[in-house]
Amino acid sequence: MDMLRALAAAVVTLTALALPAAVDAPDAAAVAKTYADIAEAGYTDSLEGARKLRTAIDTLIKTPTDANLGAARQAWIDARVPYMQTEAFRFGNTIVDDWEGRVNSWPLDEGLIDYVSQEYVDQSPANDLYIANVIANPSIKIAGEPVDTSKITKELLSDKLQEAGGVESNVATGYHAIEFLLWGQDLNGTGPGAGNRPATDYDVKNCTGGHCERRAQYLEVVTDLLVDDLTFMVAQWGADGAARKAVMADDGRAALVAIFKGLGSLSYGEMAGERMKLGLLIHDPEEEQDCFSDNTHNALYYDAVGIRNVYVGSYKRTDGTIVSGPSPSDLVRAKSAEADKRTRTALDETMTRMEAIVQRADGGEHYDQMIGEGNDAGNALVDQAIQSLIAQSKEFERDIAALELKSIEFEGSDSLDNPISVR
Amino acid sequence: MLTSHRQRAHRLRLPLLLVPGVMAICVAAVAVRAGEPAIVPNEPGEENPGGNATTQDSIDTREAFSHFSHGIGFEGEAKFKVGNAIFRKLWISAPSSTTSSDGLGPMYNSRSCQSCHLKDGRGHPPAANFPADTAESMFLRLSIPPQNDEQRRLLAEHRVNTINEPTYGEQLQNIAVQGLDNEGHMHIDYKEQPVTLGDGTVVGLRRPTYSIDGLKYGPLRPDTMLSPRIAAPMIGVGLLEAIPEDQIRAKADPDDKDKDGISGRTNEIWSAENGKVALGRFGWKAGKPSVSEQAASAFAGDMGLSSPLAPTPSGDCTQAQPACLDAPNGNTERDGGFEVSPKLFDQVVLYSQNLAVPPRRNFNDPEVARGKALFYALRCQSCHTPSFMTGTVTNQPHLSNQKIWPYSDLLLHDMGEGLADNRPEGVADGREWRTPPLWGIGLTKLVSGHTLFLHDGRARNLEEAILWHGAEAQAARDGYAALSKTDREALIKFVESL
What is the pLDDT of residue B68? Predict the structure, then answer.
């Protein structure tokens, strides 16, 4: 994933940016700056979205009406728009990768957090914490050791419960924990409908689901944590931030590796592979990232937008203003107009495919239904999007070759940075 | 067959354990050398134990063992990630509306691969006996001595590794699907025993004994042999699989012809994949010949899931458990007649093969260099073979032709009475264990949150693990115990740097 260390050595020997063919090529530092600027703007917008979500949650807890629950859910959906676009900065930046699990882990065993359906309970728990229900219990056991959960604090959620016992599905923090607390379990399988948590789950006077006060407390604390985590990441991309500094290394050439590795990995392995192909293979409605809210179509769409932003060097912020500058596209075009054109065409094709998924979802058939067994039309639509994502990652590989970034990172060929290890 | 192994083991043990003079000389020799142990120069590439496949991603978080092989490419990465998703998938009991996710059990130890292979790392013994803790990343294997000529033939021909306990099968499953009784729960009692080192330092070792609480299907046969196992770390298994068989066989010395007190034997295992006997490489006693056979066995035994190499949908149910055999299963036509379809299975195997080895830490630290010198002076590398070259792996060039540094010979060694489980497995007798690879071991605390080592996690740190070594490793263990505190720390620091 992160090729920085690997390529730091290899990139030094690259001549791509010094070749005479580079007619109007921007320098790598300028491209790196655009990249970092878009990251900073994207995380700032995500932070702003999380703050608005926090405000909406405040209102919900003070006045737990259906309308206020609806408003909080809308704030969550809105907050995901900029955040999903920042996923293009994953898989190339260590700082992002080491942090990402705190804010966006899925899938989760939601029974760790709150009440769940009897059917879910009856799947005999193997994970001790599968139905631990922290909201209902002042003390739980983690790997045989009692843990005091009487006070729901940031430390409890992020240091004790998140990945408790080393089980990755023990997700206690981030967008999807919040999503579960706003929507509840989606018990509709591949049928229509999302989670259906009532607003009264937060009504201490007419409490449903029990422990409404603690549920409200959990929701506040977990959203505060999200704000904290996004605040941290905004700083990493600020003027003196470590993530910005890392991509500006080698006169910005480090960014090129981060960019193409990140875009290729997100397109192929993460989206086409883990998030989409598996769901099609097993037709399991749980295989969607936003499974409580049925918002997966938007998650996929904005991921694709984020990839495009980085390649073309332009990001439309939440407030409508544009952050743009010299782009990877400009660099590729200077080396090979053909490669750049092919890449842009592939990105456009992906956007078309993602729009088709969004349209179908807006028409009432959501992503978990689209991947359902026997839904040939829905399956085909998802498969076409998968194929377009794979196709665009092939174009990124061509770009890597055009920029002469080709090396072991992308090809699996013999080592450049460690030539003696193979004999 | 079994008797002859025991004789061989005794033959080997005698000079080491019963002739104190020999040991004393050995220790003295080491002690002299340990004054100024000869520095073993680092080779180029040694800081990347997995060769070019060594991860270059961050090893600063709990994800340190969860990265894919370097150089795998975007397409390989996609397969790896799908495999990862299946690896952490929670399986459910049949029948269910999602046929590709069902088939769990009827009896099982875990609902997902990941919940035993926590963070792709090492499992651990429970903090307390059931019901205080559920021992999810550890279980008991069960078997009995062969009862008849047919069973003896199966063992002799390496068709089976063990004869299952007739009622409870090959391992104790502590969980069952709704409406069915589980088999019971492992019970551990630890007894502390002090060990005094050469400088007078006293180290406590905890000696476990194993039994079973709440047997639900009647008594175990009285001659049942129990063997506790924790989930092993997953990193680098594709590289170990890529070592040409003859390289491993070349290091075997079953009759100790070189008279160094160390034998090294190969386990020989029936390969369902290839329909012939093959070299055992994986598992605590090298009981499985390949990553795919190891995975199939884990799907079947630990989760009760059928797959192409282990097609029985009822897992480890026995004839004495008819309700278990009759419980609904998840074999479906769409999944090729299995619960885990060939497609899903292959991606889990690819995932496992490509969990990357981390680079060395503190590689150039002088204390680590000194620890390395001591490691070699004590001849730890006689079994913990530093390096191998991998061969060519079909469709996986990034794993091919790499110089790797696993610090294991993948062979079986007599480790003495202290560690013996007294349960033979294939060729391995009740005192033999496969040399476990040491790569990545220093990241155990970060990844797994503990430092519990050996097949049952009895050792609470590396020093205890070393002090448990016996028989073939007795001289090395005694050499370690005779070192000064500074030297012991240096040796441990070297091991932690691997």
Answer: 97
Amino acid at site A264: G
List helix spans (H) across B252-290. Answer: none
Place of tokens 């590289």: B239
**Residue of A94, A269, A285 with shortest CB distance to B58:** A94
Residue A167 pLDDT: 87
Q: Output the six-digit token pair for A376.
A: 């040939």
Q: Spell out the domain ranges in chain A.
A: 4-16+24-105+173-414
- Which of B46, B74, B445 best probes binding to A when mutated, by most A CB atoms within 10 angstroms? B74
- pLDDT per position as a tens digit, A256-275: 999 999 999 999 999 999 99
CB-based contact (8 Å) between A163 and chain B? yes
- Given this structure, which CATH class describes domain A4-16+24-105+173-414? mainly alpha
Our CA angle for A64, A67, A70, nearest 5°, is 100
Low-confidence stretches of chain B (pLDDT < 70) are: 1-35
Q: Do A126 and B118 touch (CB under 8 A)?
A: no
Give the whole-angstrom CA distance, residue B214 versus residue B371: 47
For chain B, give the percent of residues with pLDDT over 90. Answer: 85
Mean pLDDT value of segment A324-332:
98
A223 in Cβ contact with A54 (< 8 Å): yes
Is residue A268 a contact partner of residue A390, using CB atoms and an 8 Å limit?
yes
Average confidence (pLDDT) over A242-248: 97
pLDDT confidence of residue A351: 98
Whether residue A278 and residue B56 make contact (CB cut-off 8 A), yes or no, is no
Q: Is B392 left (phi over 0), alpha (psi -120 to 50) or beta?
A: beta
Q: pLDDT tens digit string along A267-307? A: 999 999 999 999 999 888 888 889 999 999 999 999 999 99
Residue type, B15: P
Percent of chain A scoring above 90 in pLDDT:
78
Residue pLDDT, tens place only, A142-183: 888 889 999 999 999 999 999 998 888 899 999 999 999 999
State CA A264 to chain mean position distance. Answer: 15
Q: Among residues A123, A284, A173, A376, which one has the least CA distance to residue B86? A: A284
Under 8 Å CB-to-CB from A159, ≥6 apart: which residues?
Answer: none
The pLDDT value given to residue A406: 64
A266 contacts in chain B (CB < 8 Å): none
Which residues in chain B are contacts of A165 at CB distance < 8 A?
Answer: 118
Question: Could you tell me the pTM of the whole model?
Answer: 0.91
Label each residue of chain A as H, E or C.
CCCHHHHHHHHHCCCHHHCCCCCCCCCHHHHHHHHHHHHHHHHHHHHHHHHHHHHHHHHHHHCCCHHHHHHHHHHHHHHHHHHHHHHHHCCCCHHHHHHHHHHHCCCCCHHHCCCCCHHHHHCCCCCCCCCCCCCCCCEEEECCEEEECCCCCHHHHHHHHCCHHHCCCCCCCCHHHHHHHHHCCCCCCCCCCCCCCCHHHHCCCCCCCCCHHHHHHHHHHHHHHHHHHHHHHHHHCCCCCHHHHHHHCHHHHHHHHHHHHHHHHHHHHHHHHHHHHHHHHHCCCCCCCCCCCCCHHHHHHHHHHHHHHHHHCEEECCCCCEEECCCHHHHHHHHCHHHHHHHHHHHHHHHHHHHHHHHHHHCCCCHHHHCCCCCHHHHHHHHHHHHHHHHHHHHHHHHHHHCCCCCHHHHCCCCCCCHHHCC
Report pLDDT for B201: 98
pLDDT digits (tens, 9 = 90+) for A175-203: 999 999 999 998 888 788 889 999 999 99
CB–CB of A152/A217 below 8 Å? yes
Q: Which A residues, 180 through 219, put their C-beta within 8 Å of a C-beta on chain B? A: 189-190
Nearest CA in chain B to A407: B71
Q: How far apart are CA B351 and CA B338, in angstroms?
A: 20
